[in-house]
Amino acid sequence: MGCISNITGAITYDCLGGAVGIADLLLINYSDVQSVAINAGEATITLVVSAKPVRVASIRKGANATEAVRSNENAPNALEQTVNFTVYKKTKVEADFVNTIINSRLVAVAKMVENGIYRIFGPNYGLEVSALEESANENGGFTAITLSTPENVLGEPRAVITESTWNTLVAKAG
């Protein structure tokens, strides 16, 4: 069991919040992350100069993210993070993308549908492909990809990024 910690603060409700879904998604090669610092739930991420995040279309709930507790026997509990998205096109560019992502470790950054909310997934250990599925007879023949926290790590923290950080990452994506 992990260490016991004390909670503080209050849980409040925002009547205007509650919009669901991912509006925009970026994938970043884990090797392109120079540093990540998380302070009080907010992540600051710095990429190497040559890094180029990859933008993923999120159409009609084409991207999703989930979190679940990962209980650790002799370490603090953390989160198992999962990001799902769909590859819609079927050209050689997408075929190359699928062949490459199978063996990649990535960080995902999402602009949520809810205004002003930006999340980061896999900041400490990255995410790896845990499922990849395509059926020519179902779902438009599109490819569904699931990235998850690797099995052999403690897990991830929940963290947000600022709008400024999001805009910087989007600018690098081109």
Question: Any overview of this molecule?
Answer:
12% of the residues lie in helices and 40% in strands. It is mainly beta and 174 residues long. The chain has one domain. Strands 1, 4, 5, 6, 7, 8, 9, 10 and 11 form a nine-stranded antiparallel sheet that branches. A two-stranded antiparallel ribbon has the order 2-3. The longest helix has 11 residues, at 163-173. The model has no long low-confidence stretch (mean pLDDT 89).
Features:
single chain; 174 residues; mainly beta; nine-stranded antiparallel β-sheet; two-stranded antiparallel sheet; 2 helices; 11 strands; globular
In short:
The chain has 174 residues and is mainly beta. The chain has two helices and eleven strands; from the N terminus they run ββββββαβββββα.
Number of helices: 2
Main beta sheet: 9 strands, antiparallel
**How far do the termini sit from each other?**
44 Å
- Output the helix-strand order: EEEEEEHEEEEEH
Task: Report the uncertain regions.
Answer: none
Structural class: mainly beta
The overall average pLDDT, rounded, is 89
In total, how many domains does the architecture comprise?
Answer: 1
The rounded Rg comes to: 17 Å
Helical fraction: 10-25%
Which overall shape is indicated by the principal axes computed on the Cα atoms?
Answer: globular
Number of strands: 11
Mind sketching the topology for me?
Elements: E1 22-29, E2 33-39, E3 42-47, E4 54-56, E5 63-70, E6 78-87, H1 92-101, E7 105-112, E8 118-121, E9 127-134, E10 143-148, E11 159-160, H2 163-173
Antiparallel strand pairs: 1-4, 1-7, 2-3, 5-6, 6-10, 7-8, 7-9, 8-11, 9-10
